């Protein structure tokens, strides 16, 4: 099972999801979407709950469903936390204090998970950088309601690039109309 971090080049946001096949998933998301999507990082781990744990970890940065306003540095940090938790789980006697309670909670949840008897636990997840860079993107179905981005307990409306272009065009037409009349 892979947990992937897909980057949207237009919005600079990341989708955090899980799949059995990275290649198939990026193709599914890219179909019908003009925005380039790229898998920047992925974790190969038997724990199917890691995706859910990461969604909870980034919930204050959530934009919509599985899309988050995060950056590559934050992604690499949580990948290190997952690897650290798996090392502890495999019996490595490392000790670490966490200043951020979210970090401790993520590691604790990973440590509590036990695989089914049919699965075997790997000691450390396999992490890939830029594993797939297909020219494929995901069709984000935006809801009818207005999207809100939460940053530092403030709410900022998210305006899509398409909306921005249409608004700019309408304003330009209006200004040309006024210029023509005068």
Explained architecture:
The protein has 182 residues and is of the alpha+beta class. It is 37% helix and 25% strand. It contains five helices and eight strands, in the order ββαβαββααβββα. The chain has helices at 22-30, 50-57, 72-89, 101-112, 161-181, and strands spanning 2-8, 14-19, 37-44, 62-64, 67-68, 126-136, 148-151, 154-157. The strands form two sheets. It has a six-stranded antiparallel beta sheet with strand order 4-5-2-1-3-6. Helix 2 packs antiparallel against helix 4 (101-112) and helix 3 (72-89) crosses helix 4. Mean pLDDT is 79; it is low at 117-124 and 127-147.
Name some characteristics of this structure.
182 residues, alpha+beta, 2 domains, 6-stranded antiparallel sheet, 5 helices, elongated
Please specify the SSE layout and strand pairing.
Blueprint: E1 2-8, E2 14-19, H1 22-30, E3 37-44, H2 50-57, E4 62-64, E5 67-68, H3 72-89, H4 101-112, E6 126-136, E7 148-151, E8 154-157, H5 161-181
Antiparallel strand pairs: 1-2, 1-3, 2-5, 3-6, 4-5, 7-8
Helix pairs in contact: 2-4, 3-4
| Order of helical and strand elements | EEHEHEEHHEEEH
Portion of residues within helices: 25-40%
Give, in spatial order, the strands making up the sheet with the most strands.
Answer: 4-5-2-1-3-6
Low-pLDDT windows of residues: 117-124, 127-147
The overall strand count is 8
Number of helices: 5
Overall mean pLDDT stands at 79
Radius of gyration: 20 Å
Number of domains: 2
| Structural class by sheet pairing and helices | alpha+beta
Largest sheet: 6 strands, antiparallel
